[in-house]
Write a structure and sequence with these properties.
By secondary structure, the chain is α/β, with parallel strands linked by helices. It contains eight helices and 14 strands.
Length: 258
């Protein structure tokens, strides 16, 4: 069986900790002969700590949703970035509502319109460069993230009307854009193929909008925690408690370690 885990609010708590009981249960599942992978919206720098704790290094796993996928030996199986043209169009001053906060993310650097904006002082920016965005120096990008601003719905509609990209609009108003097919579902299919695991033998765990494609692809889908929206629960066959209540550990003890 291939066990595919999202990180935040699935195995990692809202205070950004991996409970020891979940970590131990994942290791026990691997020792019992199951494959383990991680698919996260986090970038490599902030995901690495948890990927290492779960014993998934050097791979396979994916970061930036499914934009960067590592294989068994740590080799890059897939890297998808938005083109220069995408970035220039999305962040063109003429089309951006005034005052909308944004971060253009390239590797471990965040290029933002306001480096002092507290919205970029989150856990995912740990050990990463935060610099002012300069439109004249635009290159390819892994992600663009717009801060909560009241314009996300209209911005999403405009972006999807003009580009074929992957877009996530979060309940707190954040809007996140990645390249086309840089999603967790296609990443999980790629990882399962490398491991030689059939789709029906794959179990995916997730709680967020960006997990829907992964949950829909997996042979068995498990939604996690009280904040999982209806669209996540709709594609899952079962629902478990949040990491604070050790939902994943309890599931593994019942279904993978019994």
């Amino acid at each position: 069986m291939l066990l595919a885990f999202d990180l935040d609010n699935t195995v990692v708590t809202r205070s950004h900790e991996l409970p020891r009981e979940i970590e131990r249960a994942v290791w026990d599942a691997r020792d019992a002969g199951h494959h383990v992978t991680v698919l996260t919206g986090r970038p490599l720098s902030s995901a690495h700590r948890f990927v290492h704790q779960l014993g998934v290094t050097p791979g396979p796993y994916s970061v930036n949703h499914g934009a960067l996928v590592f294989g068994l030996q740590g080799e890059i199986l897939r890297r998808k970035r938005m083109t220069v043209e995408h970035v220039r169009s999305i962040l063109a001053p003429a089309v951006l509502p005034q005052g909308v906060p944004f971060a253009c993310i390239v590797d471990d650097a965040l290029f933002v319109n306001d480096p002092h904006d507290e919205r970029w002082a989150w856990a995912h920016t740990a050990n990463r460069r935060v610099e002012r965005f300069e439109y004249e120096r635009v290159g390819e990008a892994d992600k663009i993230v717009f801060g909560s601003n009241g314009e996300s719905e209209a911005m999403e509609a405009r972006i999807l009307a003009e580009h074929t990209l992957t877009v996530y609009r979060w309940g707190d108003g954040y809007l996140e854009i990645t390249a086309d097919e840089a999603d967790k579902g296609t990443a999980l299919a790629l990882i399962a193929a490398q491991l030689g695991v059939a789709r029906e033998d794959t179990v995916a765990f997730g709680d967020g909008t960006n997990d829907v494609s992964m949950l829909a692809w997996a042979g068995r889908a498990v939604s996690v925690g009280p904040y999982a929206p209806d669209e996540v629960r709709a594609v899952a066959q079962e629902h478990i408690d949040a990491p604070e209540e050790l939902g994943v550990a309890q599931w593994l003890r019942r279904h993978a370690l019994s």
